[in-house]
Amino acid sequence: MEKICVAVRVRPPISQETSSGTFWRVEDNRISLHKLHGTPISGISYAFDHVFDDSCSNEKVYQLLTKDLIHAVVDGFNGTAFAYGQTSSGKTFTMNGSSNDPGIIHRAVTDIFNKIQMISDREFLIRVSYMEIYNEEINDLFAVENQKLQIHESLDRGIFVAGLREEIVNNAEQVMKLLESGEVNRHFGETNMNARSSRSHTIFRMVIESKGKDTSSSDDYSSSDAIRVSVLNLVDLAGSERIAKTGAGGVRLKEGKYINKSLMVLGNVINKLSDGAKQRAHIPYRDSKLTRILQPALGGNAKTSIICTLAPEEIHVEETKGTLLFASRAKRITNCAQVNEILTDAALLKRQKLEIEELRKKLQGSHAEVLEQEILKLRNDMLKYELEREKLEMVLEEERRSWKEREQRIRDQQMKIENLSSLVSNGDRSSGQGSMKASPKEESADKGDGFKTPCFKAAPNAFVAKRSNYSQLSEFSPLPDSFSNVADEDTWFKMNKGYIADLDSLQRTPERKVQSFPPQELTPDCSNESYKQELENLKRLIDIVIEEKNELQRKHTEQTQLNDRLMGEISDLKQEALLVQEMPQRLCESLATCKDIFEDVLSKMQSLVSDRKPSTAKVLSGTSDIGKTLFSTLEAHLSMAVDGSKSSYGNDSLTQECNKKLSEMLKNTITSLIPSETAGAEEEHVKAPLCSCNKGCTLGGETACWEEKLSNELMEVKEKYENLEKELDLSNKFLEDSKERYGSLEREFQLLKEERDSLLKTVSESSQKLTLVTDQKENVLKDLNTEVQRRKDLEKEIKHFSVAFASRQKSLMSIHG
Ligand code: ADP
Ligand code: MG
Q1: Which one of 145, 304, 415, 431 is separated from 167 by 20 to 30 angstroms, measured CA to CA?
Q2: What CATH number did the domain enclosing 93 receive?
Q3: Residue limits of the Kinesin motor domain (predicted)?
Q4: What percent of the chain clears pLDDT 70, i.e. is strictly above it?
Q5: Confidence (pTM)
Q6: Ligand nearest to the CA of 103
Q7: 785 domain residue, yes or no
């Protein structure tokens, strides 16, 4: 058990403004607030492991605060160094440094490589990663495409960020280059870099694995096969000032909230940890990404140092007090760091043998104190195994639960797909085409990358080690009951004071050099995760397909209705057209009847007048001629109309000719009547009935009257005929339009049909996907079974151990007795 190492660093004042009331004084390892004339302000004085004044260089900070930590990391301990403080207080300056005074990160990297060069009996493998937490989202700074990464926990790896790129490095220069490109990625597409860097946390992480070199002749096999894995986190936190309530709207407000949340949870975790082991209840590591990732570094298995940076200006005094309060709380936290060794099965066996051997030797010495110590140690070991077993059970339970959930989801999906396919097959039957079957070969080829088993990148020239079941077990934090455990803003406010900073007016460490970064392979994700994601995608896809199908069905019914309506209209129009076509025929018929009547009347009149005046007979015959010509013209026109000839205008000349002919005939009749007019005055009673228009008219007048009447009639007939023809034209046009519309509708219908077919294809694809998912599920099930088997084996071993322990205890007792 050891306390967290806490240091405070005051940066040099930026402006030369003279302080009017107070100033911070640094003496040895103490910092206190003084009035201008020198008297200390009571209650505001803090002591820490180190207090660095403004003349202190990064070199000194590194030597005094972080060097030991870095060396411990090389020896197999986890280590974490934080920089905490308000914006512009010098966090980035401390972590990154400047070109003539490199910061902690640079020095640590160089130091690590120097140190491992000096260790000749172990071989090392070093991996680095660089991430940023911005708005509670984890982004990979080594690969811009890796955004919004998730945190996972596994037995082998403990808490880890899934999909984060880890680069294997062999020297410090390589790391520096990677860091530079990381900085470039961090500001990719950023318009306001300063604002972002003060609102985000960055974590630079080094994982150091080491293994003793093969010394096969050596008898000291206690740790030669064990692998040490240690993690170093170097964290540049976001500015600790409160910016949530600056009143800035939109993005800024949201960012403020998240920073507050992450730092608030960090403050809260530190608060709870500093309460001491007895009061420690639930530590809300899981409430923010930052605390979750740094869980082992906070009250867990890690050596931790925090450097709190302060701005000396008087305007920042409230925020500085907040930072000091945070630092003094952190000072109270104790961690329990231990070397992280992963034992391969062979190494474990060897080590146990060795332990038994030692025990036997000690037993032979039979020193009571030693024996008691051994018993205690064994008991502790027992407890440790018990704990491990419990943890395993917990993990198994979790696994089982998530598996059940997954199965349920798959069942739901299957039901949905079944519903969908039944719907689709119904639709299919009605349309008589469309196929549900897509080539399965094609499918599997298509979906190949979606369900690829993730392959883990093998380390070049690295030793390969099988991690045993006894590998390092991560510290589990209990699941959060609710967020009510998290300190609210007011608590945070009280703890960290309420300084509000204008970020834009602050000066900052210049950003790193910009440099292009070659795109590299993605770090593989955990298969479980990708499986879940795939399932989600599938679900979404199916929903979309269902929606599309419904939409299509709706459209289809609408189209059918429209089609029906149009068909009705078309048949109406056809009937009308038929009627119009029949019209000339009917006119022909009525004309024939008229002609018959006319001839009848004429013949009757002729029979009446035959024995009277020849002039009358002449008139009658003329009239009959006229009538005949008239009728024949009409007949010709009508027959043309019946035959479908449309050129009424072309026939106009014909009509006019007829007209002329008729008028000539009329004239002839009239002139033939004129000579007999004088002689036949007494025959007026005969003529009278012939003229209906004027009783007192003469024969000439009578003829004119006839002529007029006939021409009127002719005009009427002509007019009627023209109207009819126009109507016919209109009908034809209408018919044409309808035909066109019908054609376009049919085309549309065809398109819709095609669309539906493609949808059907998609559905079948989805079902194929589902089969794949089911396969994966089975694999997961298999994994689970092996997990169960492993657990059983472990239990068995524990039993063996306890039996051995019992027998040993018995023998010890007997010896003791
Ligand atoms: P933060 O990361 O906390 O927002 P910066 O590291 O960007 O703050 O520091 C703000 C400014 O102060 C920068 O211009 C930086 O160079 C300067 N600065 C900070 N600490 C020191 C120091 N110890 N010595 C010299 N300059 C410093
Ligand atoms: Mg900074």
Answers
A1: 304
A2: 3.40.850.10
A3: 3-333
A4: 71
A5: 0.49
A6: 1
A7: no
